[in-house]
Fold this protein.
Amino acid sequence: MSMNAAPLEFRSEELLADVIARLIGDVRHVAVGNASPIPATAALLARERGKGRPYVSLLGSPKNTFWTDGARELFDCAGQGRIDVFFLSGGQIDGQGNVNLVSTGDYEHPKVRFPGSFGSAYLYYVVPKVILFRVEHSRRTLVPHVDFISAPGVSEQNVFRPGGPIALVTNRCLFSFAGGRFTLASVHPGHTVEEVIENTGFDFDRLATVPETPAPSPATLALLRETAAPQLAEVYPQFARQVFGVGQAALSS
Amino acid sequence: MFQAAKSLDDALAAVTDGCMVVVPREVSGVPMAATRALIRRGVKRLHLVALPTSSLQADLLIGAACVATLETSAVSLGEFGPAPRFAAAVTSGAIKMMDATCPALHAALQAAEKGVPFMPLRGLIGSDVLKYRDDWKVIDSPFGNCDPIVLLPAMKPDVALLHAPMADRFGNVWIGRQRELATMAHAADRTVVTVEKIHDGNLLDDPVLAAGTLPGFYVESVAVAERGAWPLPLPDHYAADAEHLAEYARMAATAEGFAEYLDRYVYERRAA
């Protein structure tokens, strides 16, 4: 940040959307699952930057999905390699990239039950770039070993696996993922490496100097607020109102 | 073969105690009026399959002690939070849980639809979802070179239960683009449908409507239930009743609150 410019005012959701949009990169098709407003914001931002590329499928949005062959079409599409980026989260995520969407404690006598694995036990294997996203960065969520593997971070050599995790985005930092391990790639403004170590339950690699996550540029903030947010309001009205202060566009019917 | 139902309860006769029932996900047309009728009737020991996930419907049936086994990929109230009766029943061991992943349920029904014994599916290997499913098997692909792949046995539910915008007097049901409803019906032994309204004429006479029609050949009975998905949405017809769902999430957080919810909205007993 230059010394003479006033620091930009932005919300953490905007920073995270910017980080995720960069991870998406130049691809053909991004799909976003249910209950994922920040990844959805990022996908819409990527689409604006790419002037319509990538194609964005937002589950739960009739305007932003083309499926006509039922709920299986998403999975069939992914199985053929027609989806390049997907997002997963987890009640627990561990250092090997395993995600747990099922329960804590013993599976047959769980302490806490989460909703379930959804499509993770399939999509994690077949979508080339899976971005893990968990806002809460704590030793409760980022654990040494998950209690239940909804989907593993890595597979044996002979298991068909064109896909898998490329990164983990939290409210404190960005980790990249390769070779079965996370590397601390950058720490978000206002957070520190020490704080990341303190709040992470698994071991990870890091360089001697860890860069700060770049703040979103004025152009990015304008795109987010003026172009992406109104589109987001169709699918995530509450989130769009709280974060961007925009309401849903008037419905035609 | 198709018979016009005299009433909702009449249509639901096929859903007997202990049977396997497949129901659709929240955005496909969830038969909520039928679900409340089943609870009022006191149906027991269902093997409930939610294709591929569920929200209020599974939570209600589980809370009302109608379910012995739940087979699905997730149960959640979405933006209204976790499904409280589901979570309580799994942690207490009140129901048997068969955790799946979304495409596995679609594929298992597709196997039944085709009349073949199983369907292969990628993914799953190395997950605990597979580890806890004794009924799923891994083989070395006969067309590969050391290529393990999961096989899912065909799933043949006793009943497919769904809600749709309309049906005609021949049992043809218009499902539009919610094609998984057709897969459910093709796979199940019997299909019971509730609809918003009856369409005059034959849906199969119009090629545009016919493309989105589940033929009456697959349908056992149809009953009219206006706003039959309430408080869940019916795509392209009405939105979810967010206020009611928030109230449900609040009340169902405790067993007592849930019992009160059943009294008020399912049994429709008046408060004293």
In short: The CA atoms of residues 93 and 237 of chain B lie 38 Å apart.
